[in-house]
Amino acid sequence: MDVILIRHTSVDVAPGTCYGQSDVPLRNSFEEEAAATREALQRHAPFDAVFTSPLSRCTRLADYCGYGYAKRDRRILEINFGDWEMQRFDDISDRRLQEWYDDYLNTAATHGESFRMQYERVAAFLNELKASALRRVAVFAHGGVLLCAQIYAGEVKPEEAFNALTPYGGIIKICI
Questions:
Q1: Are 168 and 8 in contact (CB under 8 A)?
Q2: Fewer Cβ within 10 Å of end Cβ, the chain: N or C?
């Protein structure tokens, strides 16, 4: 099965802000970025099914690209940063932040989740797709979800994941 993963366009959030599952606004350049993504995505269509994270930064891009009917799935939400959401990383005083920096794979944000926890939910989504009769699927999601999908497909090692972050509006293809 071919899974085409599309990262949302750039967000209007101050640099260094921890925004995981917060529903944040997109930059004023949305239409320009989205038009480029839509054009690139046409080379991958048609799709047997289209899915999107329920956060507006993904649903808005799915709508713009002509997939307003995309099925929303909470398993493809960005990582949950819990108490750290919408704080600048430099301003977070939680002692667990250093533990997370040292081992983001296994350490969860306070009242949030670890990268491994996010991976497990994305893998459950991909396992369900893999077991279906679908052959070509589009997924509008977040950078962390795209990293998890690349790990799932064996294209990226977990410890090297953040070196493979897809740019805003970027598209990747995995085979599962």
A1: yes
A2: C
List the chain pLDDT tens, one digit each, 176 residues.
999 999 999 999 999 999 999 999 999 999 999 999 999 999 999 999 999 999 999 999 999 999 999 999 999 999 999 999 999 999 999 999 999 999 999 999 999 999 999 999 999 999 999 999 999 999 999 999 999 999 999 999 998 888 999 999 999 999 99
Both structure tokens of 28:
């004023």
State the Cα–Cα distance between residues 81 and 35, nearest whole angstrom. 30
CATH code of the domain covering residue 93: 3.40.50.1240
> How many structural domains are present in the chain?
1
Boundaries of domain holding 91? 2-175
